[in-house]
Amino acid sequence: MTHARAYCLLVLVTLLWAGNFPASKIGLAELGPLSLTGVRALLITPVLVVLARLAEGGIPTLHRRDWTAFLVLSLTGLVGNTTIWFWGMKYTNPINAGILGAAAPVVVAALAALWLRDRLSPPNLAGIALTVAAVLLTLSHGSIERLSTLAFNRGDLLILTSEIGWISYTLYSRSTATQLRPVTIMAGVHAVSVVVLVPLMLLVEGWQPLARATWAGWGVVLYGAFPVTLGHLWYYQAVRTVGAGRAAVFTNIVPFLVIGLSWAILGETVHWYHLVGATIVIAGVALATRR
Questions:
Q1: Which pLDDT tens digit goes with each residue over 24-61?
Q2: ∠ CA(137), CA(141), CA(146), 5° rounding?
């Protein structure tokens, strides 16, 4: 892959990921969190299995470490992070979620220092402090009174809770012993997620919302299943070409894209603390993940 193609992919992936925030709000008007996640996994799994077979030259022999990776990454990723994220999106707006979600790499850096013995420099520590400030500003909506009374929106708190899953997913991905290709791991993770989420979806939410869903609801499901999921594979391909540092520059602008898309598509009101919080969190991430 050429650098030019890699940068084009990064622009596309960044737009797809940012678009998932306002899209989820549209989908949640018709479908529940379990339906949005479970059907998404059900639809994309066969595609990932085919891509994995092509990448591996057949069906690879799976060892115990591989099945462990599938299970842990499924429970922390789609089952934990994505489902709780959708739940939180029911009660908050995409702009808040975009800013709070952008803080996750900083927590990963901090926990990696404890778990994987990564060293933190003074700029890294400054970045962590900035990110904490951005999160508190967003949670409090710029209000000292809210901050002093801890009167936070439950949707914002659920978004932060969902990041525990993503952080665990990321750290485990770095330490897992599996030697499989990323697309094969994604196929296995999604297959396990189908087994967990689809029965849970039918038990809790039933099939009726899916039967009543309009083209808008199904469009959001398809958007999450194919462009968003495949975007992760495209991102990994681009990282291998241009490096993680250059790729991170693109993902760091996601909060601003979420602000713009939420305003344009949903008519969300953009407040001063959104713009300040997005700026501070990007600066914090840049410093905290600097090597």
A1: 999 999 999 999 999 999 999 999 999 999 888 887 88
A2: 90
For 99-138, the pLDDT digits (tens) are: 888 877 777 677 666 665 667 777 777 877 888 788 878 8
Q: What is the pTM of this model?
A: 0.85
